[in-house]
Amino acid sequence: MPIPESQLEIWSHQGSVQQSSATYQIVRNALLKRSAEYADKDFEVYLQGSYANDTNIYAESDVDTVIQLNSIMRSDLSALPPEQQAAYHRAYADATYRFDEFKRGVVSRLSNAFGAAAITLGNKAVKIKANGSRRSADVIVCYQYRRYIRFISENDQEYVPGVIFPMASTGEIINYPKRHSANCTVKHQATNSRFKPMVRILKNLRSVLEDAGEIVKDTAPSYYLECMLWNAPDGYFGVSYRDTFCSCISWLFKTDRSKLVCVNEQYWLLGENLVQWPAANCDLFLKAAIRKWKGW
Question: What pLDDT, on a 0 to 100 scale, did the predictor assign at position 51?
Fold first, then answer.
């Protein structure tokens, strides 16, 4: 039989909010300490990921915090004509402060705040172990990235703002977390507040499929599930979760999935790039979800 509405309703609920918010504030306050080596630089700290987008479920623990250096930037000027590229280079000089200096300062600040034993340097982020009521946290250290659309002068320019962060062993990632979050909010509003609960339903279903051995862990990361569902037409988000599930999953299974895009609208969702979801894994998830729906 299909998954009952009562189960979907349970899965739709948001996970811990108060504890994750408190964890973020603790990490944020530590990063903003005036004694930090980078305190005089232009930087910002903000929340990203499922807690920022209100799509977290009870099974999730890590709170993702971004510390973004704005004193330096890398830009993609490939869409600009030569005269605009020349204007850009006249406007901006080479930076003298280096990103590796910034990251060392961040790691030092976190070690001082939480103890060196609580800090681990991961491939993508600086990891902070949980302690008491504080949840585990990931701190993503990055710097400003701009994909330019137009550049006439510093006062007349247009670009898509993003971030770039080098990873320890697999190159670097360029992403657009603020654009992702803003587009999720627009989608949520356009679907009568159904989008974010449906993301949580898919994430909980993913956990059920993993526990049952029907898909292996990391087949369907949360970010990609969020992006996949974002592509479903607004009108497919119905009055019930059952109707919405059937309509959206059916559409996603039948559509040309090579045309799906990430929520930030800067990448195709499926592919072999570091920020893309392998098409075979998307297919595995959808087939497993449909089997579970039919055989609940």
Answer: 87
